[in-house]
Structure formats: structure tokens, C-alpha cells
Amino acid sequence: MATSMPPRTPLPPLRVPGQPTGGPPPKKRRANESISTWRLTDRIGYFLMWAAGLLVVAIGLGIVGFMAIKGLQYLRPVLLTSHPQADLDQSKSGGFFDPLVGTVLLTVIGIAIATPIAVATAVWIVEYGRPTWLARVIDSGIEIIAGTPDIVLALFGLVLFQQGIFGWMSFRAEDGAVFGRSFLTAGAMMSLIALPMVFAATREGLQAVPAHVREASYGLGKTRAATIRRVLLPSVKSNISTGAALGMGRIAGDTAIVVVLLGASLRLDPEGGIFGILQGTGGTLTSYVYNNSPAGEGNAAQKAYAAAFVLLLIVIGLNFAVDAIARRGARANGIETSRLGGS
Amino acid sequence: MLDRLRQPWTDRRAELTLGALACSVLLVIAFMIAFIAVKAWPSFNANGLSWFSAKGNVDQQLDAMVNSGANPTKADYQLGAWPLIYATLLTTVLSAACALVFSLLASIFIVEFAPERLRRLIVPIVRLLAAVPSVVYGLIGILVIVPFIGGSLISPGRKESVQYVIQLSGTSLIVAVVVLTVMITPIMIAMTVDGLHSIPRSWKEGAVALGVNRWRAMWTVTVRAARPAIMAGVVLATARAIGEAIMISMVAGSKGFAPNPADGITFLFEPLRTMAATIVEDSESINAPAMQASLYAMALLLLAGGFVLSIGSWLAKQPLKKYGVRS
């Protein structure tokens, strides 16, 4: 449809060399070289486009710069290693060691649940994918999960994990009611946030593996299962890592599930060893920032800035990891990866 | 069928295992819809269609639910959620519209006009903006933009003009829309840039060869051909915006108030609270059954919205397949 579009601007009159044209002799220049010959509307559009591009740069650098200044201003090494205290005075409210541990714990749990399921789903869809309708339904199912707001996932997790059979994941009140809020339950819901990203990255990698690689493996007498395990999965390893790093960034940055499903408390539950911590409530850096902002109860802007800066560093670090993994994977496979995809 | 049975048993087993794991995704969705719908039912049942209407102060209704105890009567479920629905629609539509214009211009810049060195800077920045957690956006919003708006942009006269209806403190619709726009623009840019890249270069070169300038060729040929990708980006970003809870609850004032466009400019400075923000803020009192049902009803609405938008993005992407664009 677009190819048949006639040009809107009238063509300039054809000049034939040597023929008298009247007026000054034609200047030698490439057509459309200077925007001063453009129509006004085009020039306005061109200007707005530059403005938009520069605004993106300004916003990005502004956010990072502002957070870096405020973060370095208020961040002290002792904040990273001291426990938070409930105190209105900012000099007495302690650091954010517990939220930091909470972020790491939750991210690890979430990605540990998400990766096997996402990789299995991607492998099944690309390598088997029969019956076709089921593959298509599962494909759209993952898209639906990706489009579900995190707050809805949090409420779903709350009602799901308050069922009796999941009692072991959190703790029970004396009357037998299951509390439903813990690192395990929140991590399980967080896995749904990371799952679509790991899935998309793995599927893209598998689809980029040329068919002759599989055929060579079958030709050597390997079964499909052995081909997947020995040939395909090693060759999409970097894609899986990319997706996992992206997913970890999303988990570390999510707040709604932490507030609803982890309790967003200041400290970890100290009882019962490592499994007791996993069964207990806690908080992460995101909930710490939320609670210490003017919107929360703490209202300690300095602590919020410092924690937000650490959080931003973690997320940016994960994104750099994505780049590094993708570059190494591209070198290993000789496949060009897109630079702005992966959303 | 026989053919498949003749496969080695390990293969069959692998297929079944992987297929079962893949189906678990569907199981999760089915459970999600079922559980949330069951929990939401009492609220819809008690209110009927008037759940969607405006009746009285929604904040008072929610407060009454918290105090209604463990065995609420039907009157305790009383809720007219229109201010919250209206706030959700308002923030989502406004920010999606702003982000569409902004991201389209920025994408054209990235794809076609940016000098190479600037392009190398802008692409990581877009990815960074997409990765910044919403709570950080909220923090910047409430500590930087809100004081600025409340202190400098809202004149005392404007505050007095509506002081018997609502307090203007700076936490407002405009801050929510601005920050939300910044949050969803990177998503749109990513989709739009992919779409613009996928249009064959020769189409635009043909237009340029016919004497159209570069901007017009881009605008009338490439952008027009990439409309499905742009639409898919808008839908994806809208899905993100509709469920944004934390940032909105921080910067939008969290009052169950419906900003009135008839107020002129003041409209932009009025506080509001979306459904997602309501869920986050009232999740502490979720053990009160009436409150629980109301919050799950809102979640069901958001889930339905996400569902519709997922289908919408799938439909929008269909025409792209013919250019060989995946995902």
C-alpha cells in the first residue's frame, strides 16, 4: 500500500544542461541535502524529533545522575551491613542489610523456579510443539502472564498460598489458617514475572539454531532427547543466561508482590535457620524504598535515596551482564543479536 | 499415531515431561482466573452493576469495610468504584497518548536521523529507562516533581478555589501521567524501533528517489508501513500502565477522587487513586472479608483488562508476520 503512494511535494522543473533557463545558474547540490528547502510542517516535525531524541537522553542521564548524586551523598558502607531499626530519627534507623539479603534471596528463588519451567516450555514449543493448537495456546498463555499486572499476581499468590496444602511454604496460625506470606510464596509468584523473559530469550535462541545442526545430530544416531540435551541446550546457553539476567532485573525491581506477599517488613524472620527465613516474612530494597519514601510510614528520604541507589546499581549491573552475555554468545555462535530487542 | 509410538521411549518420556511443564503455565492461568473470580464474587453479588457506578465517597466506603468485622452484612459490601476506574482509565489513556507521540518521534530519530555517536548513547539509555524499577520512578516523582508542582506551579489562588472540595498538595494527576509516560515510553520505543527496522529499506529509498525529502519519506512510507508494530507497542505499554500500582500510589495523592475536566487547568493538579494503587494501599486490611472481596473485584477487572490487551497486541502484530517479524 505504501509503495504506491505518490510523492506529496511537486517535482522541481527538469533542467536540461546547456539550455537557457532564465534566472541564476543552478547551484550544484544534492537534492534534499538542506532542510531549509523543506516544507514548514516537515521542518517542525524534524525539529520535534530531535527534541524528543535529546529529551530521552536528558531524562536518562538526569535520572542516573540525580540518583548517583543523592545516593553517594547518603550512602555509607555501614548502611549495607547494619540491620534496620524502627525509628523515626534517620540517624538511628539503621541500615538496610536485611532488605539487601531479601532482594538477593527473592531473586534467586524466583529465577530458580522460573528458569526450568521457561526453558522446558520453550524447548517443547520449538522442538515438539504438537498438537499445534496446544502449542499456540501455551504461547498465548505466556503472553497473558507477561501482560498480567504484578499486583494481580500478588493477590493471586495470596489466595493460592493460603490454601491448606501450601501450609509448609509459610506458617500457620493456631486456628489452622495459613498465613500465605513468605519468601517461598513471594518467590513463586516472582517466577511468573521472570518466566516470559526467559521463555522469549530461549525460544529465540532455539529458533536461530540452524536445522542442519539438528539433522547432523540425528544423522549420528542421537535421539531427539539426546539432541536437546547435548546439542541444543549448550548452544542456547547464552540466550538462557540473557533471559535469566533480564528476569532477575525485573524481580529485583518489583515492589507490589513484596508489599502484598512478603509482608514488606523491615527485618527477616530470625527463627528456625535458613528454612525458617524462607518461610518467614521479610522485605527487599524496593519495599524499603517504598516504606521510607514520604508515601510510606518511615518518611526517611536519605535512607530511601541510598537504598534506591543500591537497587539501581543492581538493576544496571544485571543489564550490563545481559550485554556481556549476549556479546559472548554472539561471538561463540556467530549469530548477530538484536541490540534493542528483548522486552 | 503409530509413528509416534515407535519413537524411543526416552524421547517419548522427554516429550511428555516437557509438555507437562509447558501445560503447567495454562494451569496457573486457569487457577488465577478461578481463584480471583471466586474471591471477587461477594462484592459483585452485593452491588450488582452499581459496582461500576459512582455512589458517594469511595474512601468512606472502603474505610467502612475495614471496620465491618469478620461477618459483614450485605450493606457492608457497598461500593461504587467509578472514581477508581475513572482514575485508572484517565492515567492510562493520557500517558499512553503522550508516550505514543514521544516514542514515535524518538524512534524515528534513533532509526533514521541520529548521528552514529548519539545513537550509541541513546540505545543503552532506552534500555536503562526500561529497567529502572517503578519504585525509583515513584521516589523521584514524590521527592522532586511533587514538591516542584505543589510549590511553584499551583498558585495559592488555585488552591483556595477548590479548597472545600479537595486539597491540592502537588500529588496529582499530572505527576502520575508524566512519570508514567517516562516509564512506558521505553517499551514503546523498543517495539517501534524493531518495527521501523523491519520495513524494507528499498521502500523508503524509492520515495526519496522520487524527490520526497527524508523526513517525509520516513513519515509517509516507513512509519505508515510499521503501524502494526507501533500499535502493538502501544498495547503492550498500556498493559504496563494499567497495572502500575506502586508509582501511582506514591505520586498521585491516593484520594478516591475523580478529577473533573470542567475545572480547567486545575483538573491536572487534582489527586486521584487508581485501582492498582488501591489494592497496594489497602492490602494491609485484606483480612476483613468485605475489603478482601472488593480488592479481588478490582484485581479481576485489571486481569480482564490485561487479558483484552494481550489479545489486542496479538491481533495488532498479525499484519507484521508478512514482513517476517517475530515475537
Strands, helices and their partners?
The complex is a heterodimer of chains A (343) and B (327).
Chain A: H1 40-74, H2 77-81, H3 97-128, H4 132-147, H5 150-161, H6 183-208, H7 211-219, H8 224-235, H9 237-253, H10 256-262, H11 273-279, H12 285-292, H13 301-333
Helix pairs in contact in A: 1-13, 3-6, 3-9, 3-12, 4-6, 5-6, 5-10, 6-9, 6-10, 7-8, 9-13, 12-13
Chain B: H1 2-5, H2 9-47, H3 58-66, H4 82-113, H5 116-131, H6 134-153, H7 156-161, H8 173-198, H9 201-209, H10 214-225, H11 227-242, H12 246-251, H13 275-282, H14 289-317
Walk me through the structure.
Chain A is an all-alpha fold and 343 residues long. Chain A is built from 13 helices and no strands. The model of chain A is unreliable at 335-343 (pLDDT under 50). Chain B has 327 residues and is mainly α. Chain B is 71% helix and 0% strand. Chain B has 14 helices and no strands. Chain B has helices at 2-5, 9-47, 58-66, 82-113, 116-131, 134-153, 156-161, 173-198, 201-209, 214-225, 227-242, 246-251, 275-282, 289-317. Chain B is flat, with a radius of gyration of 24 Å. The mean pLDDT of chain B is 87. Chains A and B meet through helix 1, helix 3, helix 4, helix 5 and helix 6 of A and helix 2, helix 4, helix 5, helix 6 and helix 8 of B. Chain A: Keywords: Membrane, Transmembrane, Transmembrane helix. Chain A: The chain crosses the membrane at residues 47-69, 100-126, 183-202, 304-322. Chain A: It is a multi-pass membrane protein.
